[in-house]
Write a structure and sequence with these properties.
CATH topology of the largest domain: Serine Threonine Protein Phosphatase 5, Tetratricopeptide repeat
Oligomer: single chain
Strand content: under 5%
Structural class: mainly alpha
CATH superfamily of the largest domain: Tetratricopeptide repeat domain
Number of strands: 2
CATH architecture of the largest domain: Alpha Horseshoe
Number of domains: 3
Strand order of the largest sheet: 1-2
CATH class of the largest domain: Mainly Alpha
Length: 259
């Protein structure tokens, strides 16, 4: 307990005695505890927030149940349900969810992109390309969608357009190829049939952008996965700076794996 210093003034004996008694009483009082702070109630999670947590934990069935409790469902919720179904391998249900999301919001690029990944997974590359182009019209700054479009072109062996899309994706997001997905946009699995050649083209894109560490990484992966045109790394101008690095010489000792 804190006390203020009082200025003494002349006074009679009775007043002094009363003052002394009051002071002594104050000294004998135990210190009073501070008033209890009211406990704040923990905020309740919304069904969408619970679903997002389940998605992060890869508990897709639980995520779907949480999202489905949002009524009426929004385009965003339907898109998230579609992603959960797709992660479970249920492409039919995922496709229905994306289509419902697009029906609610015809200018929803994330759902249109994700519908494109369904076409890609079913090897309908032309329809996938069409979906990605439509999504890019709505969101021209999406590195993820450009990456998907490039992979669809690659699947059709249109390597020139694939590289152009990869280059554009990299200019928008330098780490686009090193992450799995972003903000409701489902990136395609890199399960392309010609993985060795796919990694060769990624090495080219990184070399063109001066990302020598990643260029070396994908050169190595391409050789380990059976890339037969090893001389490209020794002859093409795009790899001129890479060839000066000591790590390049070590990588070139790798013999392409026999497929």
């Amino acid at each position: 307990m804190r006390y203020r210093i009082l200025h003494l003034i002349p006074c009679g004996p009775s007043i002094l005695l009363a003052t002394a008694i009051l002071f002594a009483a104050a000294q004998d009082q135990p210190p009073q505890p501070p008033p209890q702070q009211a406990q704040t109630a923990k905020p309740q999670l919304t069904p969408e927030q619970r679903g997002d947590i389940y998605m992060a934990r890869r508990m897709y069935r639980e995520a779907i149940e949480a999202y489905q409790s949002v009524q009426p469902p929004t385009a965003v919720i339907l898109n998230k349900i579609g992603i959960a179904y797709q992660q479970m391998g249920d492409l039919d249900s995922a496709k229905k969810m994306y289509e419902r999301a697009i029906k609610l919001n015809k200018k929803y690029p994330e759902a249109i992109n994700n519908l494109g990944t369904i076409h890609y997974a079913r090897k309908s590359y032309r329809r996938a390309i069409s979906a990605y182009k439509k999504a890019l019209q709505l969101n021209p700054d999406s590195a993820s969608i450009y990456s998907n479009l490039g992979t669809a072109y690659f699947a059709r062996k249109d390597y020139r357009r694939a590289v152009e899309c990869y280059q554009k994706a990299l200019s928008l997001d330098p780490d686009v190829f090193e992450r799995r997905g972003t903000a409701g946009v489902l990136l395609q699995e890199r399960s392309v049939e010609e993985r060795a050649k796919f990694h060769y083209y990624l090495a080219r894109v990184y070399a063109q952008n001066g990302r020598n560490d990643l260029a070396l990484f994908y050169i190595r992966k391409s050789l380990e996965e059976g890339f037969k045109e090893k001389n490209r790394y020794l002859e093409e101008d795009v790899f001129a700076e890479i060839r000066k690095l000591p790590e390049f010489e070590e990588i070139m000792k790798i013999e392409p794996r026999v497929l």
